[in-house]
Amino acid sequence: MANDTKRKALGGMTMFVIVISLIALALTAFYFVGLTPGEAS
Questions:
Q1: Quick one: which of 15, 18, 35, 37 has its CA closest to 27?
Q2: In this predicted model, what pLDDT tens digit does every residue of 4-36 receive, in sequence order?
Q3: Alpha-carbon gap, residue 25 to 28, rounded angstroms
């Protein structure tokens, strides 16, 4: 019982970290593509 709960929590935390990382990468890519100064658009 405790092992199942631990595994479920670990899976949830792993998914949370992956989602946060993907959001951060998407924001970084958007910044570099769309908001980088110095280029005449």
A1: 35
A2: 788 888 888 999 999 999 999 999 998 888 776
A3: 5
> Residue 18 has which token pair?
């992956």
Residue located via tokens 């993907």: 22
**HSE-CB for 22 with a 13 A CA cutoff:** 6
State the DSSP string of 1-41.
-HHHHHHHHHHHHHHHHHHHHHHHHHHHHHHHHHS-TT---
Q: Show the tokens assigned to 26.
A: 């998407």
